Description:
2 copies of one chain form a homodimer.
Chain A: E1 3-6, H1 7-13, H2 16-31, E2 35-36, E3 41-45, E4 48-57, E5 62-71, E6 82-90, E7 96-101, H3 105-122, E8 130-133, H4 137-146, E9 154-158, H5 162-173, E10 178-182, H6 185-191, E11 194-197, E12 216-219, H7 234-237, E13 240-243, H8 246-252, E14 265-267, H9 268-273, E15 286-289, H10 294-308
Parallel strand pairs in A: 1-7, 8-9, 8-11, 9-10, 11-12, 12-15, 13-14, 13-15
Antiparallel strand pairs in A: 2-4, 3-4, 4-5, 5-6, 6-7
Helix pairs in contact in A: 2-3, 2-10, 3-4, 3-10
Amino acid sequence: xxxxxxxxxxxxxxxxxxxxxxxxxxxxxxxxxxxxxxxxxxxxxxxxxxxxxxxxxxxxxxxxxxxxxxxxxxxxxxxxxxxxxxxxxxxxxxxxxxxxxxxxxxxxxxxxxxxxxxxxxxxxxxxxxxxxxxxxxxxxxxxxxxxxxxxxxxxxxxxxxxxxxxxxxxxxxxxxxxxxxxxxxxxxxxxxxxxxxxxxxxxxxxxxxxxxxxxxxxxxxxxxxxxxxxxxxxxxxxxxxxxxxxxxxxxxxxxxxxxxxxxxxxxxxxxxxxxxxxxxxxxxxxxxxxxxxxxxxxxxxxxxxxxxx
Amino acid sequence: xxxxxxxxxxxxxxxxxxxxxxxxxxxxxxxxxxxxxxxxxxxxxxxxxxxxxxxxxxxxxxxxxxxxxxxxxxxxxxxxxxxxxxxxxxxxxxxxxxxxxxxxxxxxxxxxxxxxxxxxxxxxxxxxxxxxxxxxxxxxxxxxxxxxxxxxxxxxxxxxxxxxxxxxxxxxxxxxxxxxxxxxxxxxxxxxxxxxxxxxxxxxxxxxxxxxxxxxxxxxxxxxxxxxxxxxxxxxxxxxxxxxxxxxxxxxxxxxxxxxxxxxxxxxxxxxxxxxxxxxxxxxxxxxxxxxxxxxxxxxxxxxxxxxx
Lengths: 309, 309
């Protein structure tokens, strides 16, 4: 029997620590070639677009179709522009098991969970301060999920808009963080050992000469061609360069701007499964470029369905 | 609020006469370039496959995603191998309005309705006997929907398997037809003015030298590369050659085997909208090649949603 679940029901069963584990597992499946993910379907309208992502993990019980839409006139009538839902099917019989009306929430969570996975295996042990670049939804969720990857609760957040920075400070303080705001990015590079960039920037915000030894950076903003948050030279400095998906990152991630041999980029799934690829010392510089992989959708949809069932 | 409707609920609101009208309208939209239908998404498993078809009519209220699957081990556990569902979304806001768990029924109906549309505009006025080639689901539904396109209730059905022919005869007699069965295809070409071919044949079943003046043939079986029901020369004989989709039919329909200029093939939507392209005399030979077009799914999903709402 097909069940429909709404956002409130979905939020109730989400456990961040578990989500980080299943997302890490998903990256391992992906990097081991155990996932089947055809090209994304696209439907364009005058002021809207719809992306259809679908796939499965071999020998698993489920397959998943995600429909994510942006209807850019929606805010005029009081609706969010982004929407989304996931369909969970049986891989054995093809039956539709559940419709998850998550309104895009699960995509936000699985994206943030990937940041926590990267931090868990790549960030230095000792972190005095977390740096968050940007102050939107991902800037919030990335930080919230980092709770599971580090004990550090001191945070500097960078943004250009004082009002948004203050809002961020207030909200995230309530979640147990000690937040300072800045409009000067070097406050972050000087003081933070774990930095997450979450902006839609099209030109670098952080430059190689600002990076100190013992820094880990997770870049999640560059998810499409033309976007860039990190100066390309930063990848030359790095002792470990990680991509969630090698193919995607060299195509349209921050890594697409880098002049670095593909062979020297390690996929996040291989970092998770092989300690040789994880951080060795607190002096190393590490960078993870995250563009978002469909296996994350598959894993989180499965997880939510199994918890709700 | 998203609603889920099951097959029983869907069947209750289906009116064949209305369906034929909205399918005809859909073909007109399609041939006028008013539909947006991206390439079909495909997900393959070892013993199963899933097709994702999606699109919309410009300036309409809805967009539709259809998921059709074949899980070929299902019959072993008492489930049908084919399954399907349609999702109806708002084109204004992107919201999911309804999940139609039609199990593939709406695809069968919209396919049969296209045959009725072709018959309505292309078959001779006076039909003594209908010829049905094949005795599967489409052989049943095509005939059932032809009730709306002709008064004729005399039918000859062709098949290879006597048991299946007898089953067909019994079932369709109960629906008000007078059914004769044959294993000799010339019984059909000799006696029938309206012929519908519904088989998965890979070699021609009907040959040009069998076709009499005043015959209309609708070929619905060849829906993929390598399939063929009509000898290619039949198209040379025809006064009017019609394709539901010119692009699809010359690619993988019965017309893909024909040696005929594209310019002389008329799309069904243009037949519907322009009397110049419809049958003129009872002496003409007409052939319609139907491969199935996503606008049919869009139209029937919209229709069902609006009736159920």
